[in-house]
Structures are given as C-alpha cells and as structure tokens.
Design goal:
single chain; Peptide Deformylase; alpha+beta; two-stranded antiparallel ribbon; five-stranded antiparallel beta sheet
Length: 197
C-alpha cells in the first residue's frame, strides 16, 4: 500500500490535498454505495475539504484509492495513490470520471486479487482489463487524465465503478462472492464501525 511519507513518483496534476480529517468508512449495503453518484459541479472550498478528508482516510486505511461514497458523500469524485505494473506510484483526484478500456485484440484480462476498503479484510480474484484510462476534472475544475497498467489500471476501474454505484462484488460470480463474504466475516471484528477514524 502507499507510503504516505514518500511522495508519489507521478502526480501530473499536482500533489494530493493534505490536512484533512480521517472519516469512518461507509460499508457495502449502505444505499449511497449502490447508486450512481451526483456529478461534481462546484469546484470550491467544500470540495477541496472533502478531497483532503478522502486523502487522509485513504492513507489511514492503508488504501490505494477512495471514492467519496466510501465516506458517505454522494459526489462523483475519487482520489488515488497507486503503483502501476512497474511499481511507479501515480496519485491524483478525478471528478466525474469517464473510463476507457482497451477493446478487441488489445484487451487483456488480469485476474489478480481485489479488495475494497468498504468491505475490509477480504480479497478475491476479479478479472479486469490490464490497462485503463480515465478522464475527468481535478479538484479545481481543470481537465485531468490518467492511465496505467497493473494495479493502477485495476484501481482506476474500481474507483470509477464506485462513482457509478457498482462495488466489485457486483462483478463476481456467486462462488467468489461467497468466498469474499467468508473472508470478510472472519476479520470483521478487526474493522469496527468507525474504522479507520
């Protein structure tokens, strides 16, 4: 997971906002997690404060990405600080993300394990394209775009899904959903209701 003491290798749209407050994680099953999020239209101090809280919460939870719905806020925005296949860390903020995935012969699936901070402590394999690009706007309304492979591709897809009301468990067949639930149940007590605050 991300080392908050070291700056990411690549932050093309500037550093992540800092100084936020760690908030409790919203869990799967909460309505805000399962519906499309509201478009970000106001690029103001309230948004900057929200994003700073998201960054603080992501790092406190030892995560690589976090969407606003994961702290109970109905806004289509996510933050991330995630390595690609080579280990190079990229960090950013994306409001109103639009995801582009490879098609045809360029589309290769990666069946690596995936987890979610809103269903903590459980990981199962989830097939996703091994490359992804996302466009949107940054915290000040400027155009933002990111692309990558490996875990970064998975993160961009996972967080964009959150803004659309999809959790990665929705993408799993029944057998893997049951495996995920069993893993989560074994460690649920390690993640109290106010975790990671």
């Amino acid at each position: 997971m991300s080392d908050v003491t070291a700056a990411p290798d690549h932050a093309p749209h500037g550093p992540l906002p800092r100084g936020g407050t760690v908030r409790p994680m919203t869990r799967w099953g909460t309505p805000v997690m399962h519906r499309p999020q509201q478009e970000v239209t106001a690029y103001d101090d309230e948004l900057r404060s929200l994003v700073a809280d998201m960054v603080a919460t992501m790092y406190a939870a030892d995560g690589v990405g976090l969407a606003a719905c994961q702290i109970g806020v109905d806004q289509a925005v996510f933050v991330f600080d995630c390595p690609d296949a080579s280990g190079r860390r990229t960090a950013g903020v994306v409001c109103n993300p639009v995801l582009t995935l490879p098609e045809g012969k360029d589309r290769q699936l990666d069946e690596d394990d995936e987890g979610c901070l809103s269903f903590p402590g459980a990981f199962v394999e989830c097939a996703r394209p091994d490359f992804a690009s996302v466009t949107g706007t940054g915290v000040d309304g400027e155009p933002a775009s990111f692309s990558g492979d490996g875990m970064l591709a998975r993160c961009l897809q996972h967080e964009t899904d959150h803004t659309l009301g999809t959790v990665f468990g929705d993408r799993l067949p029944t057998k893997l959903r049951k495996k995920l639930q069993k893993q989560h149940d074994k460690v649920a007590a390690d993640f109290p209701e106010n975790w990671p605050a």
